[in-house]
Amino acid sequence: xxxxxxxxxxxxxxxxxxxxxxxxxxxxxxxxxxxxxxxxxxxxxxxxxxxxxxxxxxxxxxxxxxxxxxxxxxxxxxxxxxxxxxxxxxxxxxxxxxxxxxxxxxxxxxxxxxxxxxxxxxxxxxxxxxxxxxxxxxxxxxxxxxxxxxxxxxxxxxxxxxxxxxxxxxxxxxxxxxxxxxxxxxxxxxxxxxxxxxxxxxxxxxxxxxxxxxxxxxxxxxxxxxxxxxxxxxxxxxxxxxxxxxxxxxxxxxxxxxxxxxxxxxxxxxxxxxxxxxxxxxxxxxxxxxxxxxxxxxxxxxxxxxxxxxxxxxxxxxxxxxxxxxxxxxxxxxxxxxxxxxxxxxxxxxxxxxxxxxxxxxxxxxxxxxxxxxxxxxxxxxxxxxxxxxxxxxxxxxx
Length: 399
Hints:
Number of helices: 12
Low-confidence stretches: 21-29, 64-79
Number of strands: 14
Helix content: 25-40%
Mean pLDDT: 81
Order of helices and strands: HEEEHEEHHEHHEHEEEHEEEHHHHE
Radius of gyration: 27 Å
C-alpha cells in the first residue's frame, strides 16, 4: 500500500513538472512569453452605428530590449509606445476578436486599470455594454469605470497619439489623487455591477477633454501638430435605472462625498477672513448620519447631518494667529457653503428621480421593518422632504 501511494505521488509530481515546463503543449491555453503580449491599459466602449459596439484599446508592449530579448521587427515597437486599435461589431467579444487580427501579439485585457465609456453608450444603458467584463475570466473586474462628458471614449483615448500611454498616465494620476482633490470618487466594474443589480442608481466620475493654453498665440502656419488635450474631472454622471440621466458638475463633488460619508482627510475648504484675506481649512475627519423624521410609520422627511473637524491650514493675511482668536466665523462660513452645495445636490438628484447617494439603502439598514412598510422607495424619494445640516469645527490652528 505504501509503495502504491509513493508511485501515485511520483506520477502526480511528474505530470505537474511536465505542465509547468511546457511539455504538454496545447493543455495550457496561454503558453506565451511576456514579450508576445500587448498589455491593455485603457479600454474604451462606445455606442456604434445601429446596435453595434465600438471598442478602442490602448495597449503597451514590454520593451524587449530592456528585458534582454532584443528588439523585435514588425509591429512590436518599443515598450513606451502604445498600440491603439479600434473595432466595431455586434458585441464586445466580436470587436475584441477583430482587434486581435491587427497584431501578431496576444492582446491581454487582464492588465487594464481603466474602462472609459462614451456618453451616448452610458445613456443607452450600462449593462448591455458591461456584460462582457462580468463573464470574461481574463478581464479585470476591478478596473475603474468612467464616462466621457459629451464625447466618445475613442476621442479621449486617442488624444496622446503614438507618443506614449497618454490617457492611461493621466487616469492613473487622477485615480491616485481623487481623495486629495475632493473630486468624484471612482467606482470599479464590480461595484458598478452591484449597484446596477440593486436599485440601479449610482454616480460615476465624468471626464472631459480640456484644450491646453495657446502658448504661441495661435500663429498660422505652425508646422507642429497641436498638443493633446488634457483629461480632467468634469463631475459625476448620474445613473438611474441603469442608464445615464444627468450630471453633477465638479464643484458639487465635495458635497456629494460628504453626504455619502466618503470625504477623506486632507480635503481643503476655502474661506475668507473678516479683512478679506483668503484662508483655507484642512479637513481632519468627517461624519455623515441619516436622521429620519417619522410620523408613526410614515416617513415625514430626512435630515442628513454632516460634521467636519478641521484645522486652519493657511491664512493669507500673514502672521501667526493669536491664542484664543475666534475661528467660529470661518467655521460657520465653510458650513454655510457646504450646506448650500449639499442642498443643491439633493434637489438635483430628486428632480432626476435618482437616489444615487444611497439614502434609501442607509435608511433600510438602520430601520429595516419601518422601511419595508414604506412601499415603493423610488416613487417616494422624489417628493420626500430632505434637509441637510452641516457643522464645521476648527479643532486647531497650525501656527
